[in-house]
Design brief:
Layout (H helix, E strand, L loop, with lengths): L1 E8 L2 H13 L5 E6 L4 H18 L6 E6 L5 H9 L6 E4 L3 H8 L7 H13 L11 H4 L3
Parallel strand pairs: 1-2, 1-3, 3-4
């Protein structure tokens, strides 16, 4: 089984999971982590790191874990980077709804090539739509 962890600054993780539930239905394999809310800033990064390790440890060792974070170089991503040697998991920065949806519909077993394809597809979905306006044939495909 593939477990998906959505971890962000503030309540973004909860909000994007609410959107996934609206579009795709309930997803039992997705867990979210909202950092720096409810006084977490006062707890410090050591406390957050411990919570993240506990979260990762809650999944069976043989299952794939994909962690999607909001911002490369952000504190949430950096805390997961510190944990990469303690337990295998896939860490992807740049969370958006399209990326998360592709992981929701991904196969039960993920390979590095599959993950790279999902990321490439998500990149391709980021479009300056104004450039498409007036090109009826391109907009018709939506």
């Amino acid at each position: 089984m593939v477990h998906i962890v959505v971890a962000t600054h503030g309540n973004f993780a909860k909000g994007i999971l609410d959107s996934i539930k609206l579009i795709c239905g309930e997803q039992e394999n997705i867990t979210y982590f909202c950092a720096y809310v409810d006084g977490d800033m006062e707890d410090g990064e050591t406390e957050i790191s411990g919570k993240l390790m506990d979260l990762l440890d809650s999944f069976p060792e043989d299952d794939d874990v994909v962690v999607l974070v909001d911002l490369l170089g952000g504190s949430v991503c950096n805390e997961f980077i510190k944990l990469t040697g303690r337990r295998p998991f896939h860490l992807i920065a740049g969370l958006n709804l399209g990326l998360l949806m592709q992981f929701v519909f991904a196969p039960e077993e993920l390979t590095k090539d599959m993950i790279e394809e999902i990321i490439d597809n998500a990149r391709a979905s980021i479009v300056y739509v104004n450039e498409l306006v007036g090109k009826d044939d391109e907009l018709d495909s939506f």
